[in-house]
Each structure stands twice: as structure tokens, then as C-alpha cells.
Design a protein that fits this description.
The complex is a heterodimer of chains A (152) and B (195). Helices cover 76% and strands 0% of the residues of chain A. With 152 residues, chain A is mainly α. In chain A, helix 1 runs parallel beside helix 3, helix 3 crosses helix 7 and helix 6 packs across helix 8. Chain A is globular and about 55 Å long. The N and C termini of chain B lie far apart (67 Å). Chain B is built from seven helices and six strands; from the N terminus they run αβββαβααβααβα. Classes of the chains: A mainly alpha (152), B alpha/beta (195). Chains A and B meet through helix 1, helix 2, helix 5 and helix 6 of A and helix 1, helix 2 and strand 4 of B.
Chain lengths: 152, 195
């Protein structure tokens, strides 16, 4: 079994990984999470036993790094006012992703993987270790919660 | 309707930062030269590949081979090939006669390693022949096989297989095409017979 050159994964998926991380942890933390994701991936790469679904494998690592960032934040809460101010002034998407970041873990992960990184529900199921149905349900629930926030 | 618009994100700066220090086993770059685009790859040990990019259908097949024969941890990082590029620029500008960068012979089979090891010692501006190189490599009757080894030289220019000619001084053959062999020999001030 031969794995493709690692650079090929970067060429194919780095943009989506970056968009996922900007969506899921925010712009300020995305770059560090991106570096850590690629470093972990490169270290583990030669030990992979097959080259099936490398995209899902890479996003599994990115998702793990994003979860680390959220856990660290939960231990060191940021004042809500500061976050909202930053989101309103810096994000060209009008702060929608800032709202996504405050959703429960599963909904946040599914919405960013689906709409920031363009993964299918099948791929998301592989990344999160859940069923496609569970992924679809979490996306629907998350969108419903978002609509409530945006248009109360 | 898409309920959420993907955030804008350009990964190129972050990718360059990653590649600059990534613990890859092979790093590579494509660089311009008077002989066309060159593909350069190095390992921890030294320059492992220098190929004319157009002869191999682009960089992809070269990368595939590196991944299969050395390690799949292959990453593009032009800054990590800067010293090689600089030496090549100097060579093509006529300001360098010897390369100082170490070479990694991992992609050569044992016979090729002997033949190309002998070839590496032919100085700038000098030439040898397939028969002589074969003899010096310890296989005096293997001139044809030596030609094969030279033709598959993974480190063109720096391991100067262009300095090996047919026994009557003809150009004979070259991994990069005869016009390139001619160009390199002219650059080094060697007069060659017409093919």
C-alpha cells in the first residue's frame, strides 16, 4: 500500500480545513489550530494503514484540535461583551459563525463541517463517529436554534 | 438556500508557515532555470532529486515516486531549497564551477550509485566516456549499463552526467534531451561534435 504524497492532501483540503477552523474556533485561534492539525497529521501520516477517505481522517484531527480549543475556553471564560464586539467589527459574515460557536458541541461541529468545510453528512458521520441520521438531526436542530437567535 | 455562508479564509500564508518547519522527510520546490522548470527535492541528508519537470509530465509523477520510494511525508517548501536554487543560479550565470550542497543517493540502485559516484568526480569543463566511467566503477565491460545508469540519474546537473560522452566525443544521449546536454557543455566551455 502506498500513501499519496502528503502535499497532495494539503493541496486538496487545506482550504476547507482552514474554513472549518475559522468557523468553529474563530479567526483568532484558527491559525494555531491549523498548524497543530497539520503537524499532528504529518506525524501520524506514515502509520496510516490505508489511504481510504483521507479527507475524513484529516478533519477528524482538525475537529479534535477545535474541541481542545473549546475545552480550554470553557476553563477560561471570555467576557461575552468582548466576543460580541469583535464578531461585529471584524467578521465579514456578520457574526453568524459567532452564534454557531455558542451552540452545543455536536450542533456546532456538524454545522461547521457541513457549511464552512462543505463535508457531506456521510463524511461528517465518519469524522464524528455518529450516524448520518444523527448528523442530519444535529444540523437541523442547530439551524433551528440559529434562526431563533437571528429572528427572535 | 444555504443557511450559512462559509467564512472567507486563504490558507496560503498559514501553509507556507507550516511547510517552513514541518518535520517532513522530503521537501521540494519547482524553480526556474535557463533549461526550463527544475524540480528539486531534498531529504535530511541532501539533494535527492533534481529533474527537468517537463520530462516527467509535471511534478505529480515525481512526487508519487518520492512518496513510494522514500516516504509519503513529502511537503512543498521553496525556502528550504533556497541554498540549492542559489547554487544553481550561480552555476547558470557562470559564477560557480562546483556544487557545495550534499547529495543523497537513496534513489540510486547500487550499480548506478557506483557509476554516478564516479561521474560526480568529473570536474567542471572536463568530460569522460561511458566506457571509462564503467571501467572506473569497476565494471569495464558494462559501458551500456553505465549509459543506462547515467540516463536515469536522479540528480541531474549536480551529479554531472552531462559530462559523459560517447567514445568518439558525440553527445550520445541525455536524460534531459540532447539540447540541454549541449547547453550545459557549452556553459562549461566544452566543444562538442555535432550529433
Amino acid at each position: 500500500m502506498t500513501l499519496p504524497p502528503f502535499q497532495r492532501l494539503l493541496d486538496a483540503h487545506a482550504g476547507d480545513v482552514m474554513r472549518f477552523l475559522v468557523g468553529v474556533v474563530g479567526r483568532d485561534d484558527a491559525d494555531d489550530a491549523f498548524q497543530e492539525t497539520l503537524l499532528s497529521a504529518l506525524r501520524a501520516y506514515p502509520r496510516l494503514e490505508h489511504a481510504d477517505n483521507l479527507r475524513a481522517w484529516l478533519f477528524t484531527i482538525a475537529h479534535r484540535k477545535a474541541t481542545d480549543v473549546h475545552r480550554a475556553r470553557a476553563r477560561r471564560p471570555v467576557p461575552v461583551g468582548a466576543v460580541e464586539e469583535r464578531a461585529a467589527t471584524e467578521e465579514p459574515d456578520g457574526g453568524d459563525w459567532e452564534l454557531v460557536r455558542r451552540l452545543p458541541d455536536r450542533q456546532r461541529s456538524v454545522l461547521t463541517l457541513r457549511y464552512a468545510a462543505d463535508l457531506s453528512h456521510r463524511e461528517i458521520a465518519a469524522v464524528l463517529g455518529c450516524s448520518e441520521d444523527a448528523s442530519r438531526r444535529a444540523a437541523a436542530d442547530g439551524l433551528k436554534a440559529l434562526r431563533k437567535e437571528l429572528d427572535p | 438556500m444555504t443557511p450559512l455562508t462559509p467564512p472567507t479564509a486563504d490558507p496560503s500564508a498559514a501553509l507556507a508557515r507550516f511547510a517552513a518547519t514541518a518535520p517532513a522527510d522530503v521537501v521540494y520546490a519547482l524553480v526556474d532555470s535557463p533549461l526550463g522548470t527544475l524540480f528539486l527535492a531534498r531529504t535530511e541528508r541532501g539533494l535527492v532529486r533534481l529533474a527537468y519537470e517537463d520530462l516527467h509530465g509535471g511534478a505529480d509523477p515525481l512526487l508519487e515516486r518520492l512518496a513510494a520510494e522514500l516516504s509519503p511525508r513529502v511537503v512543498e517548501s521553496p525556502p528550504r531549497l533556497d541554498d540549492v536554487r542559489r547554487e544553481l543560479d550561480e552555476y547558470f550565470a557562470g559564477r560557480r564551477k562546483r556544487f557545495d550542497i550534499p547529495v543523497d543517493m537513496s534513489l540510486m540502485r547500487p550499480f548506478a550509485r557506483r557509476v554516478l559516484g564516479v561521474t560526480a568526480r568529473i570536474p567542471f569543463g572536463a568530460t569522460s566516456t561511458y566506457a571509462k566511467v564503467a571501467a572506473e566503477a569497476g565494471s569495464p565491460r558494462a559501458a551500456r549499463a553505465a549509459g543506462g545508469a547515467l540516463g536515469s540519474n536522479p540528480i541531474a546537473i549536480v551529479v554531472p552526467c552531462h559530462r559523459v560522452l560517447g567514445s568518439t566525443g558525440t553527445l550520445h544521449g541525455y536524460t534531459g534531451g540532447l539540447h540541454r546536454k549541449q547547453h550545459l557543455l557549452e556553459l562549461e566551455g566544452v566543444m562538442t561534435q555535432a550529433m
